[in-house]
Design goal:
193 residues, elongated, 2 domains, 73% helix, mainly alpha, 8 helices, single chain
């Protein structure tokens, strides 16, 4: 009888431990996705009306579809060319915020394509792929894409360009650790600083 009680106690402890381990792993998926995607996680949850399970399924699918993308390195010539284009887009902002954002939008599409992200006209597919690798900065790209057309104020457009610069810098860096490409921000009403 004592052996039976010991066996039942051991089985109960193992079952409880398994329950908590499984529960922790399931909960960790959400924490892992939240940690990986940051503000993008919150954006997707909001788009799904607060349904975190639906949002996490979407983000898991993104990781499955785009997680294996290996960003191709850029040559120094390509880096210089993109840096010059970005400087031109920023300078154009004073004269024409709409044209400046259109150039920044096209530049980010070209740069992301050259780095190995999806080609083509599907903006959402490209930003979904970028979000897997640069989740902290993809929103700036979306803001530029949206603000270039429409009724955005000049200040909203300026802020969008400043946010998009973070993705530009991340893509231009080419994965080189510790590499800085200047932290030029637009000063209100001016070009580059």
């Amino acid at each position: 009888m004592t052996t039976a009680i010991i066996i039942i106690a051991v089985v109960a402890v193992v079952a409880i431990a398994a329950f908590f381990l499984l529960r922790g792993r399931l909960a960790g998926g959400g924490r892992g996705l939240r940690s990986r995607f940051g503000p993008e996680y919150d954006r997707v949850v909001a788009r799904h009306g607060g349904d975190t399970e639906a949002a996490e399924r979407e983000l898991d699918e993104r990781v499955k579809r785009h997680g294996a993308i290996e960003e191709r390195p850029l040559t120094e010539e390509a880096r210089a060319r993109y840096a010059a284009r970005w400087a031109g887009a920023q300078e154009l902002f004073v004269e024409s915020p709409e044209r400046s954002l259109a150039e920044a939008d096209a530049l980010l599409a070209d740069l992301s394509r050259e780095r190995g992200f999806p080609d083509g006209e599907n903006f959402e597919d490209r930003t979904d792929a970028i979000s897997v690798h640069h989740a902290a900065h993809v929103d700036g790209y979306r803001r530029v894409h949206t603000a270039r057309n429409g009724d955005a104020s000049t200040e909203d457009r300026r802020e969008a360009l400043v946010e998009a610069r973070k993705l530009f810098d991340a893509l231009l860096a080419g994965g080189a650790a510790g590499r800085e490409h200047g932290n030029r921000n637009l000063v209100k009403g001016r070009g580059t600083s």
